[in-house]
Amino acid sequence: MSDDQLNASRRDALKTMFRGAGVLGLGGMAWGGVVDGLKASELALRPPGALAEKSFIKACVRCGSCVEACPYDALNLATVDDHTAIGTPFFVPRETPCYMCTDVPCVPICPSGALDSELLKPSEPTEASERMDINTARMGVAMIDEDACLAFWGIQCDACYRACPLMGKAITLEFRRNDRTGKHALLEPHINRTACTGCGLCEHACVTEKPAVFVLPKELASGKVGNHYIKGWDKRDEKRLHELKEEQKNRSQSAEDYLNDWEDLIDE
Amino acid sequence: MWARNKYIVLRRIVQLLFLALFAAANLWGWKVLMGNYSTALVMETVYLSDPYMVLQTLAAGFLLSADALIGALIILMFYAAIAGRSFCSWVCPLNLVTDLAFRMRKKLSWRKKENIMLLGRNSRYWILVLGLLLSAILGVAAFEMISPIGMMHRGVIFGFGMGWAVVLMVFLFDLFVLENGWCGHLCPLGAFYSGLSRFALIKVKHQAENCSNCNKCFPACHEPQVLDIIGKQSGFIRSGACSSCGRCIEVCEDNALKFSINNYKKHRREL
Ligand code: SF4
Ligand code: SF4
Ligand code: SF4
Ligand code: SF4
Ligand code: SF4
Known about the structure:
The structure holds two protein chains of two kinds.
Chain A: H1 3-40, H2 53-59, H3 65-69, E1 75-77, E2 89-91, E3 141-144, H4 150-153, H5 159-163, E4 171-177, E5 185-191, H6 201-205, E6 213-216, H7 235-243, H8 246-249, H9 255-260
Antiparallel strand pairs in A: 1-2, 3-6, 4-5
Chain B: H1 2-28, E1 33-35, E2 39-42, E3 46-49, H2 51-60, H3 66-83, H4 86-91, H5 94-107, H6 123-138, H7 142-146, H8 148-158, H9 163-177, H10 181-186, H11 188-196, E4 202-206, H12 217-220, E5 235-236, H13 247-251, E6 257-261, H14 264-270
Antiparallel strand pairs in B: 1-2, 2-3, 4-5, 4-6
Bound molecules: iron/sulfur cluster (5 copies).
């Protein structure tokens, strides 16, 4: 081969490599885009004992064991059109809620650790045989749309209250004077966020066309106070103060000096 | 008749048996094989899992339970040491679809046109690596999120949803665009087992002295590049890309091909 030919074939090889890398990059970006889009959706309600969503979709090996274990067929495995990580389990309470089995068969069967029985530890120590307490599950949290709820209209309905496995704890009924009629009482359902397991039995039971009470994933339905406010009257919350990073805690100036220090505010 | 179709019949039986057992676990609570091709519980005792899935999960930053890790190790050892890439031809449910496309293409005797869109048979190894990279970047097992194999098996066991569209896409791609396009060029799981299988025990053996150079085995094989020794030299079809489907053995009329135990030491001496 002459030098020219050699160069030409080298150039060809380089070109092919270059184009190959390009195609691969292009495909990779499309692939990544699809995956990113699918995992971004946080609307799915997970089985009891599931890790936080971010870890959960990492951990779940999409085996469907939990789905098979559920005696009520509450759980589904996501397919392409379910808008969440494909192959992961979720439930739709309006169709079939989680009936909160006391033995929680869906959790110990999970081979990956995506469903973790540690997260269902009984809050008070009980008999050794009861390793899990389904009441500690936090699959989501129920929300009430007061505009659509009949009870807030003054019509008697306590379907959700009676359906709740933690009746009186997760949903309470609160009396209020009905100002419209002046002589009746409203019996309004209220959700206690710390007790609600997110099972969705209330959503399932609600009598309105589109449920006035519905479960949302906890992450989605929660705010966050941040570090600027701490409950000084709550010992546990005060702990957060001590966990803050040093720099955040010790400002160089006292609060009063900081407020009185107006010189910085003026130009020149 | 039997000799001409022995392996294809056996393969279909094995493939469908796996699907049937998984489906029976879901429908009637049979405990023989629960779960699916990603992770299965056998007879309520051992877990088996897909090692490429486990690698992606690791790359995504999650250490699976010991059950799943050991299960992946068992599968890895089994294919690497004994069965080669036979997962593809004997277990994978998508193989039913891609085999069909392969056969239809042959029936229609469409001209083979390799290397469209720069897809060579090595692309799959890059895709394998890309899958791990994307898993690390996105923090979720990237191939499992789009895997048509997953859609196929979950589809059969739990219902397809829109998953059938993805499976159909693979079929159409293989039929109209590229021969053996998915399994031979794209699938990272097939690539994973291919890369693993060079030194497996069970391999196809060629006896060149029987070979009449009829070349029937080449069009029968979905990875014809592995048959490079045919008619030239006796020995084992070593390449990990051979999926032990046995098609070549079935079409060979001169008894020049058969499954055999790969005696690696002996072969070394021959060299
Ligand atoms: S607790 Fe029972 S009803 Fe709820 S998801 Fe698990 S198995 Fe199904
Ligand atoms: S059993 Fe665990 S790993 Fe399997 S699908 Fe359910 S959550 Fe995922
Ligand atoms: S069941 Fe629905 S309408 Fe009735 S009280 Fe509960 S939320 Fe309101
Ligand atoms: S190459 Fe992939 S899709 Fe094809 S048979 Fe093997 S694992 Fe299945
Ligand atoms: S060499 Fe034979 S057994 Fe291997 S893939 Fe090709 S046809 Fe199948």
